[in-house]
Design a protein that fits this description.
The chain is mainly β. The chain has a domain of 91 residues: Sandwich (Immunoglobulin-like), CATH 2.60.40. The protein has no helices and eight strands. The structure holds copper (II) ion. Copper (II) ion binds next to loops.
């Protein structure tokens, strides 16, 4: 007496796809903060935009000269200075000490700006839940009891169209 159709039960654990999209906190420490050096028809209006820029310690200020003349940004206390920037050029300075730094343009000292460097931002507690990504579910085991169907393609090669139309 044969028992046919004895099939081992295949238990498949379907893992729920746990896609944990963790919020990516934008690190602010390495950000650069732009300042535009601008000119105008009246040279007395030349200056920096924004006139006051606030950055956190570790951040970098990047000055870009949108004018036609060369400008720079030079601390009034002489502690730092960008190179003289030609039209379209940029110069950067990073700040590691909190404080307020006024600066001017060396060739045009009436151009004035201020950099306020604050202590590192109160590092927003990265409340990222500890979620371990689920391992990739293994592919369903193939049914090895059934022979793989061999289906050779014996069809005639294309291009031999008899061209019979009704
Ligand atoms: Cu200038």
């Amino acid at each position: 007496m044969l028992r046919s159709g004895f099939v081992l039960p295949i238990t498949i654990f379907a893992l729920a796809t746990l896609v944990a999209i963790l919020p990516v906190a934008t690190a602010s420490a390495d950000e650069s903060v732009p300042v535009t050096i601008h000119e105008g028809a009246d040279a007395s209006t030349w200056g920096y935009t924004p006139a006051t820029t606030t950055v956190a310690v570790g951040q970098t200020v990047v000055w870009t000269n949108s004018g036609a003349f060369a400008h720079d940004a030079a601390a009034t206390d002489g502690s730092w200075k960008t190179p003289l920037l030609n039209q379209g050029a940029s110069g950067s300075m990073s700040f590691s000490t909190p404080g307020t730094y006024t600066y001017i343009c060396t060739p045009h000292p009436w151009m004035q700006g201020t950099i306020v460097v604050t202590a590192a931002p109160a590092a927003a507690p990265t409340a990222v839940p500890t979620v371990e990504p689920a391992p990739a579910a293994p592919p369903a085991a193939p049914d090895t009891t059934a022979p793989a169907p061999q289906a050779p393609d014996n069809s005639a090669p294309a291009g031999s169209d008899a061209g019979s139309g009704n």
